[in-house]
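Pipeline run #58 for the internal structure catalog. This entry was flagged by the ingest filter as a single-chain record with no existing model, so it goes straight to prediction. Upstream metadata was stripped on purpose; only the residue string is passed forward. Reviewer on rotation: M.T. Logging verbosity set to normal.
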Amino acid sequence: MSNNISSIGVLVQNFAQSASQSQVQELAQIAMLKKAQDIQAQSILPLLDAVVENSPKLASPTDSIGKVLDVRA
């Protein structure tokens, strides 16, 4: 994690030499947003796998979901 933060720091520092303060802040915010999205994407994968593994299986292709689950209106 510190490696990612230092690489973001280097990116911001390089950009700061040729940009205004608001542009530097925007770049840092976007970089942190992308990192947060990557972390969220990694944490959702095990949850999605668990849903797939625990979902009811149809006995045959002609079965409908109403035969597998007790669905009432």
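catalog note: The radius of gyration is 23 Å.
catalog note: The mean pLDDT is 76.
status: ready for reviewer M.T.
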